[in-house]
Amino acid sequence: MKSKILMVCLGNICRSPMAEGLLFEKIKKLNLNMEVDSCGFESFHLNDHPDYRAIKTMKDHNIDISRHRMRLFRVEDFDYFDHIYIMDHNNYNDVRSMARNENDMEKVDFILNLTHPGTNKYVPDPYYGGASGFEHVYSLLDEATDIICSNSKSI
Ligand code: 4NP
């Protein structure tokens, strides 16, 4: 069965579209039966394309995320998606505030628990920093999305 994955951050213009772009490329390359989307909680950039620094960092790695548009998390996402990966503790609390039951919350995890199980480490928000922050986010998400792919191949 197709595995549906949602990446979630605050603005949906930096971290989660980068995670979506990375996983999307790997799904295509490895021909995995999986789909991925991303969204956020802060409507300030609603319907905007990703931050230019996120687009550039991804382009430097030959991945185009320029067409993505910011959308908000909605409660129906709990029904559609199998796994909801959040970037930090604020995202965790935001998603939890909309969960209707335990089944909804069981789908939610820190994305860095893939690389550092059980530690609830966060992906730092690069929005107010420089380009090196985006590269750091890229490498964290590259490792985490590799694990999503290898887990899916072993099922
Ligand atoms: P993101 O970064 O959550 O990684 O997309 C942010 C981008 C914009 C804002 C917050 C976080 N903002 O409030 O505008």
Question: Features of this protein?
Answer:
155 residues; alpha/beta; 4-stranded parallel sheet; 6 helices; 12% strand; globular; binds 4-nitrophenyl phosphate
Structural write-up:
The chain is of the alpha/beta class. It has six helices and four strands. It has helices spanning about 15-30, 50-60, 75-80, 90-100, 100-105, 130-155; strands at about 5-10, 35-40, 85, 110. Strands 2-1-3-4 form a four-stranded parallel beta sheet, sandwiched between helices. Helix 1 runs parallel beside helix 6 (about 130-155) and helix 2 packs across helix 6 (about 130-155). The longest helix is centred in the last third of the chain and has 23 residues, at about 130-155. 4-nitrophenyl phosphate binds near residues 9, 12, 13 and 40.
Topology at a glance:
Layout lengths: L2 E6 L6 H16 L3 E6 L12 H9 L16 H4 L2 E4 L2 H10 L3 H5 L1 E3 L20 H23 L2
Parallel strand pairs: 1-2, 1-3, 3-4
Helix pairs in contact: 1-6, 2-6
The structure holds 4-nitrophenyl phosphate (4NP).
The structure class reads: alpha/beta
3D shape: globular
Discrete helix count:
6
Mean pLDDT: 97
- Number of distinct beta strands: 4
Helical percentage: 40-55%
Rg calc = 14 Å
* Fraction in beta strands: 5-15%
Spatial strand arrangement across the major sheet = 2-1-3-4
Unreliable sequence segments: none
Order of helices and strands: EHEHHEHHEH
> Ions, cofactors, ligands: which are bound?
4-nitrophenyl phosphate
